[in-house]
Amino acid sequence: MEYKVHWIIDGVANLEADSPEAAEQAIEETLKELISKQAELVEKLGARAIQGKAYLPGSEEDNDVG
Q: How far apart are CA 53 and CA 57, in angstroms?
């Protein structure tokens, strides 16, 4: 029997940047590079989207739902 598995990878990266947009862009570039080197993420694991949101430490961390 075939099953579908919906998976989520959650992570928090700390980095220096001039703006939230610059921080998001830096992470996006790193993730795109990793994905391009690991075709299995798309072909076998069905990765379709990656998204993230930059914020200042302490501003949204306490509201983390997990």
A: 12
Domain span holding position 50: 10-56
Residue-wise pLDDT tens digits, 8-64: 888 899 999 999 999 999 999 998 898 888 888 888 888 777 888 899 888 655 555
- Let me know if residue 28 belongs to a domain: yes
Biggest CA–CA distance in the chain, Å, is 50
User: 3-state DSSP call for residue 36?
Assistant: helix
Nearest to 15 by CA among 5, 23, 6, 7: 23
Q: Two tokens at 56? A: 């200042």
